[in-house]
Amino acid sequence: MAESHSSSRRSALAVRWLGVGLATVIAVVTLGLGLTGRLTLYISPGSIWFACAGAVVVLIGAVLSFALPLGAESDHGHGHGHEHGADTDEDATSSRRTLTALGTISAGVVASAVVVGALVLPPASLSVELAMSRADATGPLFAGADTPTLGVADTTTFGIGEWSSVFATASRPEAYDGSPVTLVGFVTPSDEGDISLTRMIITHCVIDAQPAAVPVAMDAGDYSADQFGTGQWVEVTGTVKADADGSLRVLPTSVVEIDEPKDPYEY
């Protein structure tokens, strides 16, 4: 009897951990990242208030859950058996319980590993390798970046996302010739003598992140592509050059190595 009670208690604790426990840990991690300004490594700034508000609601629910007796989560659906076919029903119920237990254990291990990883591993931006792997699968347009295709826009606030759209779709590339730029991004390989200045663009969160890139003509000035390794963050100052074939690229007057910005994404 005591062994059965102990087993029931362990089962109830496991259920409570998989529900309230994991949700509470994730809520605490979310609030911690929000307070330290590192939540932008995972979601767009416009979504931070929603995520933090949701985390607060989860914590309130976790506190209120202590009013629920341990084991009450699974205390339902009992005492309604039928006398006819009792043996068959018992066998089917036993099989379902076994499958449910296996599924719960598997899900619990995976979910617990994710939560522990969130606690132990430091927040990090998306890798350069991921940006390069997604480069061939993404189009040149990003949210809010289609204005330049309608004519010459005010480019003073353009980032790499907007400029990559201009470079790919502008119907009058010569109109952008000589436009000054100051862009921050990381180096990825490009044509011989050039580099690509790349930045990850996020709409909502890192799941939908896509790379945007603009070519920088390193052989046109005092710099060479060999000076900067793949993944190195740089700040490029220069002007846009429209070539005879209608293609656009950046002619740099200054290329400075920098550390990864606190917010490495564009939105």
UniProtKB/TrEMBL annotation:
Tagged with keyword Lipid biosynthesis: no
DUF1980 domain: from which residue to which, for each copy?
171-267
Q: Is Protein transport among the key words of this record?
A: no
- State which residue ranges cross the membrane: 12-35, 47-68, 99-121
Question: InterPro entries recorded for this chain?
Answer: DUF1980, DUF1980_C, UPF0703_membrane_permease
> What keywords is this UniProt entry annotated with?
Membrane, Transmembrane, Transmembrane helix
What Pfam families has UniProt attached to this entry?
DUF1980_C
Question: What is this protein's name?
Answer: Putative repeat protein (TIGR03943 family)
Question: What is the species listed in this Swiss-Prot or TrEMBL entry?
Answer: Microbacterium ginsengiterrae
